[in-house]
Amino acid sequence: MPGLHGAAAGTTLDLLRLLGYPAAEEVLGPSVRPLARLLAIEDRWAPAHWDEWDRLYEHNRSLVLMASVGSLKSSWMVLLKARRILQDPAHTTILHASSTDRLARRMVMQLQGLLTSAPIVEVFGDLEGDLWNSGEFAVRGHDPLIKTPTCVAVGVGGAIEGDRFLEGHMDDPLELQDAVSEVTREAKVLWYRQTFFNRINWYDQRARLLAIGSRWHRNDLYHQMAFSAEGQPTADVAYRVFPAILEGGAMGFPDLYSAKVLRGIRDRIGQTAFDMRYQCSATAMEGQLFKVAWLANFWADQGQVPPWSELDIVQGWDLAFTEKHLVGPVGKPKTDPDWTVCVTLGIHRPRSGEGPTRFWLLHLYRVQIAGGHKRHIEALWQKFRPRKVYVEVNAYKTIKWEFSDSMVPLQWVDQNVNKVVRIMDLQPYFERDLFRMQRDLKHADALFHEYEQFPHGAHEDVLDALRTSLRGYIDEGEEWFGSLRPAGGRV
Predict the structure, then answer these.
(1) Mean pLDDT, range 340-347, rounded to an integer
(2) Backbone phi, then psi, for 64, in 5-degree steps?
(3) I want to staple 67 with a disulfide (CB 3.0 to 4.6 A). Which of 71, 329, 409, 451 is the partner?
(4) What DSSP assignment string belongs to 130-161?
(5) Do the Cβ atoms of 289 and 426 come closer than 8 Å?
(6) Alpha-carbon distance 58 to 63, whole Å?
(7) Class of domain 292-474 (CATH, top level)
(8) What global pTM score does this model have?
């Protein structure tokens, strides 16, 4: 049956109607949920709000759909692609983009798995064509006169080959970097305008553009797609937002999230991350992210610090290279060079099991040095004997060779996200009142200044070192790279 068409039946759907296959016709109707039932997907994972999204997609040539994490928007997009292909396998062509090439290919592989699943083959026949790989594929019955494959995957910023496509889909093309980097935002907007948008065949009235995701910034790609420079809605683009919590407090996705579950998520990841990922807020990272009120119980007297024998002690290092950075971009000396910082953190778990785990800042070390980091790291390890020392090595790969004969229990940390994004990991811990620090520690004023000014201050070195020690402890034994995901299982 794939690809059968002609004067009497222009598409597979028309043919099914002609031959009298009511069940199959329902599967290819206006909603993806009958297709989900054919694939034995439970009703819970094929929610009713998909019907509204289907209607929006059908009635708008361009749709920017912002929805909460966990609303199953990516699952809906896969089923939408499958339905469009099954409706007209001969002519459907879809360009799919994600934030990275790997994620785009993963989506295409999920779509291939769906199209070759037993329920689909039983009803529609074998759709696997000669071109069938993780980057692109053409279904059996695809019109050989159409140069473009059925579906092509591309990461944002990548080259796009082939002719124009009937549909263009973007699944979460933005990432955390878009929240803090203007350069990243502008590069993605440029790629969208000059590459992705122009590869859709807008001369065909069936052409569609769809972008799904969560907001990261008031001027991100989604805004650029749906609004003019003056902030007015673009006439030919529909922009819709589906947050987890609606105005008035009602649940946006009651079948997926209860109020209790959402409160727990907010407590774990912090208000800022929650507003971005679950409420689709474009302004969540604006203003002061760390509140002074959260430090009401932060400062402690010396007698309140638990005995060190009851603490699990770790250290986190943020390395800087003062000499290299003393000269600015125009050859002038910097007036405020970066600092090398170590935070010694003591983790206290109540033996009785009552009360939360507390994180005690036992010592802050802050120095401007041009080299010789090994000596400083070994000296502080000798002084405090931490169980583990976490060292960020992004800009100093050769330091690993320097420690080849050292007894320091090191764990090297490669960071792959912006420092501001990393430090946001600390927000839920400050908000939940889990940090403590002796009030007379040296460099306490530097920590407070960074805390109060973040993310608009000149430095974040102490906060970054604190984050390195905390995440190292929480994610111990796992690969960890920094994100806004909830904390690991040790807390």
Answers:
(1) 95
(2) -110, 110
(3) 71
(4) S-BSSSEE--TT--TT--S-SEEEEETT----
(5) no
(6) 10
(7) alpha beta
(8) 0.74
